[in-house]
Amino acid sequence: MWSEDLEARVLDALARRGETLATAESLTGGLLASRLTDVPGASRSFVGGVVSYATRVKVSVLDVPEQLVAEHGVISRECAVAMAQGVRTRLEATWGLATTGVAGPDEQEGRPPGTVWIAVAGPTRVDAELLALDGDRLAVRQATCRSVLAALHHLLG
Length: 157
Fold this sequence. Notes:
The protein is 43% helix and 20% strand. By secondary structure, it is an alpha/beta fold. It has one domain (5-156): CinA-like (Maf protein), CATH 3.90.950. A 5-stranded mixed β-sheet has the order 2-1-3-4-5, sandwiched between helices. It starts with a helix and ends with a helix.
């Protein structure tokens, strides 16, 4: 179980700034959006999300270039950045968050479970971070959500 404190702090900071948030999720499969919408009043800042579990959805909905996927794969900094920028643009939000990686139990693209990229795209910058997480599928997905929210919270000051 997790605390809603981080989600509430992020949403409050966004509301105070008059800014909005959108999410692009792969391995988290909607868990990030669920965590945000668990917070009363989330609609003041959270505009929505895209669960782009399949690569073709990353390409067709989030505008991740096919060439980028061919060169770097979907478990890459480049893909996470493109997803965050794509959802930010597509949903007309101030900030876009992205999660992509391997929840397990099997490896993907030659990467072991727990290999995750997160990205935060904002008005003036895009940050991405590689995570090496331990645990089962749920633990990896939950830790991914905490990490990307903490990254945004840090940027919001």
